[in-house]
Design goal:
The complex is a heterodimer. Chain A is globular and about 35 Å long. Chain A has three helices and 13 strands. Helix content of chain A is 19%, strand content 40%. Chain A is α+β, with helices and mostly antiparallel strands. In chain A, a hairpin with a 4-residue loop joins strand 11 and strand 12. By secondary structure, chain B is of the alpha+beta class. In chain B, strand 8, helix 4 and strand 9 form a beta-alpha-beta unit. Classes of the chains: A alpha+beta, B alpha+beta. Chains A and B meet through helix 1, strand 1, helix 2, strand 2 and strand 7 of A and strand 2, strand 3, helix 2, strand 7 and helix 3 of B.
Chain lengths: 183, 197
C-alpha cells in the first residue's frame, strides 16, 4: 500500500518534470532536501515536493539575482551604470559588464545559473517566464568574454526556448552545463 | 554535410582551444543535454553538441567544426569560470499539525537550520509556499495555506531575516504532495515549502 503510493508519487514527479535542475527520468537525490519527519519516507516525498513548489511569481520585475561578485562588475540599464553586489536584482534588458579580473554569478527566476568571466559583456534582451506553466523564453547576447551556464526551467519548456547569441552564431540550449566564449 | 563534419571532427583529440566557441560539459546532477548551433535565419540545426567535453568553433565565416577536448585542457581554461556558478537552490519542507498553523516538532526544530542556510548564501532570496490537505473546503484551505506560509515567514524574520528577500504565498489544497480524494487528512500535504536560492 505504502509502496504503491510512493510509486505513484514518483511517477508524478517524473511526469511533471517541472524542476529545471532535474531532467526527465532522473531521480533528484542531489538537491539538498531537508525534512522534519521520518527520514526514510520523506526522502522520497521531498523529491516529489519539487514538483509542487515551483509556480512562484517573480520578485517584482526582477528576472534574477546576483549571487556573487569578484572584482569590478557593473550593470548598464537605461543609460545608467549601476554597481553590482550580491542580491542585486536584474531586469530584462540589462547589460552585465565585468572588468579585468571581474566575475559575476547569477541565478535567474527559472533556476538558470550563470557565471561570467573577466572582461566580459553580455545582455539579456529577452526573459519571460510564467511561474504557473513554467513556460518561457530566454535570450542571452554575449558580445565578448566568457560565460558558463547551467540551464533551468525555460530550456526544458519548449524547443529552443533558451537561446544564446554571439556576434557570429545563434545557439539553441537544450541543456545543461556549457560555456560560451567570444574572442 | 553536417554529419560528415561532425564525424571527421570527433576523431580529433586536441588540447588547444580556438577563439570563439561553445563547449558542452557534463552536468553535476543531470544528463549532458545538448546545445545546437542554429541557422540564424531558419532556426534549423547546423550542428548539435550532445557529448561532454565537445567544443564547437563559432568563428565568423567558417563552417562549424566540433572536437573533443581533453579534460585537463578544459579545466585549465574554464575551471575558474565554472567555479563561479552559483550554488543550486535548496528546498526545505516543513510539516504542520492537522487543521493548524502549528508546526510538527521535528519541523520546528528545523527552522534554525533554514535560517542559517539563508544567512549562509550571499544575495539569497527565499520563497515560501504554504499547502494544505483536502480536509475542509477549498476557500478555507486557501486561507490556511497562506497563514502557514506567513507563520514561517514571521518566524524567519523574527530570527533576523531581511523581510525584503522573502516572499510568502499559499496554494491551498491544489498542489498535494500526496494525491488524495476530497476530505482526506494527509500529513504530507500539510506543509510549507521553503525554497532558498
Amino acid at each position: 500500500m505504502v509502496l504503491s503510493r510512493l510509486v505513484r508519487i514518483m511517477a508524478r514527479t517524473i511526469a511533471a518534470n517541472q524542476f529545471g535542475l532535474l531532467p526527465a527520468q532522473t531521480s533528484p537525490p542531489s538537491l539538498n532536501i531537508q525534512q522534519g519527519m521520518a527520514t526514510m519516507r520523506l526522502t522520497i516525498f521531498s523529491a516529489a515536493a519539487l514538483t509542487a513548489l515551483l509556480p512562484l511569481p517573480a520578485h517584482g520585475a526582477g528576472i534574477g539575482r546576483v549571487k556573487s561578485v569578484v572584482g569590478t562588475a557593473t550593470v548598464e540599464r537605461s543609460g545608467q551604470k549601476l554597481p553590482v553586489k550580491p542580491g542585486f536584482v536584474l531586469e530584462q534588458g540589462d547589460r552585465i559588464v565585468t572588468a579585468k579580473g571581474g566575475r559575476v554569478g547569477i541565478t535567474f527566476n527559472d533556476n538558470s545559473r550563470f557565471a561570467t568571466g573577466p572582461n566580459s559583456r553580455m545582455s539579456i534582451p529577452d526573459f519571460s517566464f510564467d511561474d504557473t506553466t513554467h513556460v518561457g523564453t530566454f535570450t542571452t547576447q554575449i558580445d565578448k568574454g566568457a560565460i558558463a551556464i547551467i540551464s533551468g526551467q525555460i530550456a526544458t519548456s519548449g524547443n529552443d526556448a533558451m537561446k544564446v547569441r554571439t556576434p557570429s552564431a545563434l545557439l539553441g540550449v537544450r541543456g545543461t552545463r556549457f560555456v560560451v566564449e567570444v574572442k | 554535410m553536417r554529419a560528415l563534419l561532425t564525424s571527421l571532427a570527433l576523431f580529433t583529440f586536441t588540447s588547444g582551444c580556438s577563439g570563439t566557441g561553445v563547449t558542452l560539459f557534463d552536468n553535476e546532477t543531470a544528463s549532458v543535454g545538448s546545445v545546437a548551433v542554429l541557422d540564424p535565419k531558419s532556426g534549423r540545426d547546423i550542428a548539435v553538441l550532445d557529448k561532454a567535453n565537445v567544443q564547437a568553433g563559432l568563428n565568423q565565416g567558417r563552417p562549424v567544426s566540433t572536437k573533443i577536448m581533453s579534460k585537463d585542457a578544459l579545466e585549465q581554461r574554464y575551471g575558474a569560470l565554472l567555479a563561479g556558478l552559483p550554488e543550486q537552490p535548496r528546498l526545505f519542507v516543513l510539516y504542520f499539525r492537522e487543521g493548524s498553523t502549528g508546526l510538527v516538532d521535528q519541523s520546528s526544530a528545523l527552522v534554525p537550520e533554514v535560517f542559517a542556510e539563508v544567512q549562509r548564501r550571499p544575495g539569497a532570496d527565499v520563497q515560501i509556499v504554504g499547502h494544505t490537505d483536502t480536509v475542509g473546503d477549498g476557500i478555507a484551505n486557501d486561507d490556511l495555506s497562506k497563514q502557514r506560509a506567513a507563520i514561517v515567514q514571521t518566524l524567519l524574520v523574527s530570527m533576523g531575516l531581511e523581510p525584503s528577500i522573502v516572499r510568502a504565498t499559499g496554494k491551498g489544497e491544489r498542489e498535494p504532495l500526496e494525491p488524495t480524494g476530497n476530505d482526506v487528512a494527509s500529513v504530507f500535504n500539510r506543509r510549507v515549502e521553503v525554497f532558498i536560492k
